[in-house]
User: Fold these one by one.
Assistant:
Number 1:
Amino acid sequence: MGVPTAIRPQRDCAGRARSTGSFVVVLGVLAAAFAVTSYVLPRSARGPAGEEPATAPVAPAAVRTVSHTVVYELLGAHGARNVTFAAAGSALTQHAEVATPWSTQFTRVGPAGRTEFYSIAARNPGPGALRCRIVVDGVVVAEKTETGSDRLFSCAV
């Protein structure tokens, strides 16, 4: 009895071409990724480029400031309670009770052309009228009178 001999199959060249084709595709994908990455990365990440022209540092423009003299006044026969006003630097100041006539004066400094806010509020203990006034640089800019007893009111600009 004889042992059958195995016949070796011939190799197909198509298999070799297929592996070479896969290698070319992978190489193409890597080249495309490198090209996109090189294009997308910012210039600073790729290192220094040529010399850029030197520019002088820009100094901030000087801001012209102005100062305003502000006077808050309360006028009435029976004083005022819960007096609250915006003073220098826009800080709120409060007094539980003041005798009238009452006034306070301060200077507010700020950039020229900026709109300033001034405000005073008080409660009229009554009876009678309580008047508030705001005077800026000698000019009355707000004035109001409250005649109701125990009423809170305000002057503001």
Number 2:
Amino acid sequence: MENVAILLSYTGETHETIGDAKLCRYGGTKTISIISFGQFASSAGFSYILDFFYSGIFEKDYLANYEYMLEHTGRLSMVQINKKMSDI
């Protein structure tokens, strides 16, 4: 399995974004950079793009990912229920 870093930035010109991109390149990690090129961008727009990527990755092995999600959200629910019960 390969790693991919997604870099989100309004300009792509900050020291942090450039440094992160260089670190990824040095480590051999592929990158996807999403920047606005100075146009208006919002956190809602970035959220939409991340949801789009996530849904595409999730769909690749839908059944396995869905079962994994159910198993782990079920565990989280049980932890929350147990914590509430211990607080009583």
Number 3:
Amino acid sequence: MDDTPSEGARSPAGAGTTVMTVRTVDGRGRLALLRLVAALACLETLVQGLLAGMLLNGDVDAIDPHGVNAYVVELLVFLQVVAALLLWRRNRWLTWPPKAAVGILLATFTQTALGLGGSLAAHVTLGVALCAMETALVLRAFTLRAESPAGA
């Protein structure tokens, strides 16, 4: 995914090297909202993993908190999509946040369906993948920088 604005330049490090570039976006509040909601969604996804581990370890009392927290995760992931779209509206060149957020939302709904359907192997596997996807989104969101206000 190439989301480099037209002012992006080639890396002086040479071909075949990975260089972390910081992208500047318009909308400090929108960026902060995406970071906050994504971090909360990531944290809740990790809590889901903890509750799932408790279940797999034999703690049957963890089933109710695991089920309730699934809906909290869905709500946060939905809000993550909204935050990503708000940031994208100001920065049309920045397409990865809404794409990633919608992908995670679809995977989250699939995860809930697998859990309710009792497909444990697929449910656990997708849960691990969701933790990785949320972590990647949070880390990438923190590589973005908001433009400095004019005159600063």
Number 4:
Amino acid sequence: MKEIKHPVKSPTRIKTIIGMIIIILTQSNLVFRSWDKRGIFYASLMVILLCLVVLLLALYRTFFKKPTELCLSNELIILNGEIINSRDIKVIMTMGYFKPVIGILPYKRRIVPMDMTFRYLKDEDRGISNLKSWAKMNNVQMVNKSFQTWI
């Protein structure tokens, strides 16, 4: 098989962004109402800080991270500069129909790593068909299933 390259981008994290904004707003309300109760005040403040970090990471990955390239070769996938051997892949999952998100789940993992999720920048149909043929050639299972990632 010759090398096949596709431009890819990190998936959008709109649900995470909206969820973090809602949590920050509700916890901010709790901070303002319970400033005299030290335990609740500091616990809510810590939740706000944690959610701000998650929000900033999600915003960066969604809007500011530059597109990269997915390279399919004989027994390897090169994604974000990381080489993934076909023997190390448990399953490749596709989530969604319009602008599908693809996740590569390695063995000994339950959650797909952030660097192994992507969506095609253009021509999704051709990219997914190339990925399916690569998976079939390398005996890697490919399924349509929703999956979890960190942030």
